[in-house]
User: Fold Zinc transporter 2 isoform X2 from Carlito syrichta.
Amino acid sequence: MEATEKRHLLDARLGVRSYTGSLWQDGTGWIPLPGPGLDLQVITTQSNHYCHAQKGPGSHCDPQKEKARRQLYVASAICLVFMIGEVIEILGALLSVLSIWVVTGVLVYLAVERLISGDYEIEGGTMLITSGCAVAVNIIMGLTLHQSGHGHSHGASQQQENPSVRAAFIHVIGDFLQSLGVLVAAYIVYFKPEYKYVDPICTFLFSILVLGTTLTILRDVILVLMEGTPKGVDFTAVRDLLLSVEGVEALHSLHIWALTVTQPVLSVHIAIARNADAQEVLKVASAQLQGKFHFHTMTIQIEDYSEDMKDCQACQGPSD
Assistant:
C-alpha cells in the first residue's frame, strides 16, 4: 500500500473524523483529496428515529390519515353503488319501453308485408291455442306486478310505484293487448278462413294501443333524465308557501327537480329579517314543505335579508 500521510481521529466526538493528505480511502477505493495539507472533515450523524430516516420525503406514514383515507374510499364506493342503482332504475324503465317499441315495430312491418303480398296462410287452430295461453300468462303477470306495485302505498296519495315496476307492468299490458289482438284474429280466422286479412289489421290497431300505453312511463323517464319539476309539485305553490313563513322576507335560488320518479328534491336560499330566529324559520319551513309536498331531500340556506335583494336580478325567481 502506498505511503500516505494520514492523520487519524483528532476529535473524540462521535461521528466526527478528519483526514490530512493526498489520498483518502472510503472503502471502495482511493479518492484524491483537494490538495495536500488540507483537512477533509467527514461528519456523520445518528438519529434517534432511524426508521424514519430511511424513508424519502413525503413517505411519512400517519395511521390516522391512513384510516381516514380508507373511510373515504369506502364512502366513495358506497355512493357509487347507490348512483349506479338510481341510474339503472331509470334506464331500466327506458329500455323496457324501447323494447316494446321495437317488438311493435317488427309486428307492424310483418303485418304490412302480409297485406302487400297477400300470400300467406294462417293456422287458425294453432293460432287460437297459442294466443289463448299468451293472454292467460299475461293476465297472471299483470296481476302480480299490479299487487306488488301497490302493496306498500300505506294510503299516501303522493306515493308512486317504482318506475321499473311500472315499466314492467306497461310491458305486460302491451304483450297482453298484442296477444288479445292475435286471439281475436285467430277466432275470426278459425271460423272464417277467408277473413285472414283481419290478422294484420288487428296488429295495426293493437300496436297503436301499445304505443299509447308507453307514453306515460316515457314521459316520467324523460322528466327524471332532464331534471324537470316532479309531478304533483308546483313551483309557484312552493315559493308562496316559503314566503308565508313568519320571518321570511325573500327567497332566491329555488330549485326543484326529480332525483327519481318518487324522490323530489329541493334547494333554496331564504332571506330572513334580522330579528327572526333562523333555527325556528328553518324548522317551520322544513315541516311545511315536507308535510305538503313530501320532498325526499331539502337543502335550505338561511341568510340575512338585505334591501339590495329587491333590485338584484340574480335574486329574482322565474316569472309566472
